[in-house]
Task: structure prediction
Amino acid sequence: MIDQLRGLFVLDGLTDDQLRQLADAGEEVDFEEGTELFREGSPADHWWVLLEGAVQLVRRAGREEPVVVRTMERPGLWAGGFQAWDSSGSYLATGRGAGPGRMFRLPSSALGELGREWFPFGVHLIEGFFQTVRSMDSLSRQREALIALGTLAAGLAHEINNPASATTRAVDELHTTCDTLLSSLTKLAEQDMLAENFIAIDVMRRELDPSRASTDPLVVTDREEALLEWLDAHDVEGGWRIAPALAAGGVDVDWCDRAAEVLQGAHLEPGLEWVASTLSTQALLSEVKEATRRISALVDAVKSYSQVDRASVQRIDVTEGLESTLVMLGHKLRGVTVLRDFGADVPQIEANPGELNQVWTNLIDNAVDAMDGSGTLRISTRAEPDEIVVEIADSGPGMPDDVKARAFEPFFTTKEVGKGTGLGLDISRRIVVERHHGRIAINSQPGDTVIAVHLPRKDG
Result:
């Protein structure tokens, strides 16, 4: 073993005693064609040095098949070992035998110990390099997160503003409507309306069901014009104020004819005004209820998206995260048709929902940008024997092969300056591959770009 190590350029300059320490700390690994020696995204807990043969380094860049990014053919070429300097280091690619061969494998911990013993100054430089890169990477990710947070905050403010404004408007109108309702009751009382007549008109009012009335603008307009003619014919001076509310509530001329039999003489106008006011009040309260329900749903979506007060890793239904992400990005989906195809047999998985929501945000946001805000977004989930698959597809122009090959590279972006950091897909890949031991792939052609996220399932 020492003779084999001595001939490697990467170990040039080591003494026989140092080579012996390496040989004692490591081991020789034989491989055949197709043998997987280490996997992309898994902890880089060994340093691998080629002794004989060839090893392909492959990365997932397509939907199914991996892409060979490099072939190690010269003895002495190495890979891995990053955990000697960085406890969170992982393999950047999968090492796979291109034919029969041998590699020398040394635990990263041993590499770090021997390096610090033999080359203290060099190791200090390496550690400083790793710390600098890690710091830059962390700052870049924080910037990406802040940009995403700003986008979501702006969208959420827009989403909440609509129902909040509707509530404010409805409450203001309720003041006027309630004043009219009370004044009409006062008029009826001053005109000594009989109790049995009031009870009769109230029974007729309760027969009305505004929720079942047609809301077609043409139908409502025709109904309102017919009511205005009827009110004018019965000398109701405030018909222009009463008719819109009655029409919106589903009142027709036949109902008014029956009401006129109960509301005799001077009682007709205040009686119909009271009915119109109650219908308006009911409609406005329904608006307030719907607006507050919408705000409550948005708050629930934010809680689901951010995973406030929940464990970092838990059993989750990915559909919940996808739906909450769609709510959070609702402001960007105005001109987009969203198609959902969620498999009924997709099981829950163990995952960090907050991190996966970041993945869904990046992928959906990219898809919408690719379509320039107009097109079809398809989100689907399905179960496979060992994993679940989430696909996010868009009808945009697609990715050229050169762009697809570099899509997961840090800082690579095709967006204009200031509109993208080039970290969205890199962060998504790291979350899926490194944090959840899954894989992410792209299949793109004009009019149909699909990004598939494969996550391992653990049933039971």
